[in-house]
Specification:
Distance between the termini: 55 Å
Number of strands: 19
Radius of gyration: 23 Å
CATH topology of the domain at 10-159: Rossmann fold
Strand content: 15-25%
Structural class: alpha/beta
Strand order of the largest sheet: 2-1-3-4-5-6
CATH superfamily of the domain at 10-159: Cobalamin-binding domain
Oligomer: single chain
CATH class of the domain at 10-159: Alpha Beta
Number of helices: 14
CATH architecture of the domain at 10-159: 3-Layer(aba) Sandwich
Largest sheet: 6 strands, parallel
Shape: globular
């Protein structure tokens, strides 16, 4: 679990920049204009990784498309958390045989968390012979070198060694245009929840130097980004490995001192490491949103113990009650798993009762999905899928009623929002977010994009608010 030699040296990064130049020079000599398609699955950390891949590709002379058939290089940046995401990736890989047949020179790459799983990389090696390059999260910083090896040797390349994990500062990033940006403050996970594959594929926790994080946030604020999310598998354990007496609350307080008009959000938080100090820091800040995503996963203590979550129902309730006491406007969301191996109906209803008691603004709900290689995958699981679905439907019934009631209470109120995107609703063509990250659909033109506005709420449903901008 110790932090060991995690920083990639400047000399090693310089080598990667040399490979970037080699690839760019290769295409220039061919008078070619390479195009890449980067398809990212899963969490915001994967999105941030995908933006780094695009940053390196841009340095190599690539432009981008979202159509695999048009691309000289196709990258599937994958997620290993749920079976459904994995099935989609294999389906997409299979479909790429057609674009490869049309363009035999096309390079196909699988990276991200799935690639780091030995069973997946072996399956790719044996059954997906059209895939040229496979690498896991640990090797992302070496991407230019790996890609050069594919081009130079015309052979398949696999880089999926089991490693502790590294931190590579200074990798170029291509961010989406708009108002939102992601900042990874740490990588890896030490928690080993019994249902989760992430610690096995992303390595041990390693925190970025606070000055590096602060410098990146300053650059984003100066560039006009207004909704900045700090990322980590468990941001609440940020700094534990730095050994400098500096924690996540301290980082938030320092970021909050950066002048500008912006919001700071963060995810994900683990209840075992959440503290009153964190909530007090959020409450006292100017820029940190009063929004908390605090996954509880189960409302039953026996199930929590089997999940290796290391807190109890009582501890979780005490945390959210304190957070609400210092931030009465707190918007609280969570993750929930129904049907964990060995869970009974009574235990599942303990989860439903916790949802009823807390009154979450929204939930991300899942029926348990076994991940090979985790402890839970080997546990007896006698409940049928039909039983689990019944418990799940009850959970949704309770939560949807809560969400609808919370949203309805906003009608007639004026809220401050940040206009952040376009809507698919022709009557309300713009999307915006409150400080608590509630979705508000509004009327107006694209000139409002990126602006903070006061909006009067006129209608609502379970998933969104609707409003009119005030003059």
């Amino acid at each position: 679990m110790e932090r060991k030699n995690v920083l990639v040296s400047e000399a090693d990064l310089a080598v990667q920049r040399d490979f970037q130049k080699k690839i760019k020079d290769m295409f220039t000599a061919r008078e070619a204009h390479p195009v890449a398609c980067v398809d990212t699955f899963g969490c915001q950390q994967n999105v941030a990784d995908g933006q780094k891949l695009m940053g390196m590709l841009e340095e190599m002379g690539f432009t981008f498309t979202d159509k695999a058939a048009e691309a000289d290089l196709v990258i599937l940046n994958t997620c290993a958390v749920r079976e459904h995401a994995e099935d989609r990736v294999f389906g997409n890989l299979g479909a790429l045989t057609h674009s490869k047949k049309e363009n035999p020179e096309q390079v196909i790459c699988l990276c991200g968390c799935m690639a780091q799983e030995p069973r997946v990389s072996e399956r790719i090696k044996k059954s997906y012979l059209h895939v040229n390059l496979v690498f896991g999260p640990h090797a992302l910083w070496k991407f230019p070198e790996l890609l050069w090896r594919v081009y130079e040797r015309r052979k398949r390349v696999f880089s999926v060694d089991d490693e502790h994990g590294t931190i590579a500062e200074g990798i170029p990033v291509v961010r989406e245009r708009g108002v939102k940006a992601w900042v990874s403050i740490m990588y890896g996970c030490n928690n080993f929840c019994s249902y989760c594959i992430v610690p096995y594929v992303r390595g041990r926790e390693r925190s970025r130097d606070p000055e590096c994080v602060l410098a990146e946030v300053r650059e984003l604020v100066a560039a006009g980004y207004k909704d900045i999310t700090l990322l980590g598998q468990n941001v609440n354990s940020y700094g534990n490995d730095l050994d400098i007496g500096y924690d996540f609350s301290d980082l938030l307080a320092d970021i909050d001192r950066i002048e500008g008009e912006y919001l700071i959000r963060f995810m994900s938080s683990h209840p075992k490491d959440a503290t009153k100090k964190l909530f007090d820091t959020m409450a006292a800040s100017r820029h940190v949103a009063h929004q908390l995503h605090l996954p509880f996963q189960s409302g039953n203590d026996r199930v929590l113990q089997e999940m290796n979550r290391r807190y109890t129902r009582e501890k979780y309730l005490s945390l959210v009650n304190y957070a609400k006491s210092v931030m009465p406007d707190l918007v609280l969301t969570s993750d929930v798993i129904i049907g964990f191996p060995g869970e009974t109906e009574e235990e599942a209803m303990d989860t439903v009762s916790l949802v009823d008691e807390v009154g979450f603004d929204a939930l991300f709900t899942f029926i348990y999905s076994p991940r090979p290689g985790t402890k839970a995958a080997a546990m007896p699981d006698p409940a049928t899928r039909a039983e689990k679905q019944k418990w799940f439907d009850k959970l949704l019934e309770v939560q949807n009623a809560k969400s609808a009631a919370l949203h309805a209470a906003y009608i007639g109120k004026t809220v401050r929002v940040l206009v952040d995107g376009k809507s698919d609703d022709p009557d309300y063509p713009l999307t915006s977010r409150t400080q608590g990250n509630r979705l508000v659909r509004i009327r107006g033109g694209e000139e409002l994009m990126g602006r903070f506005l006061n909006v009067k709420i006129t209608d609502s449903n379970t998933w969104a608010l609707y409003g009119e901008a005030e003059e």
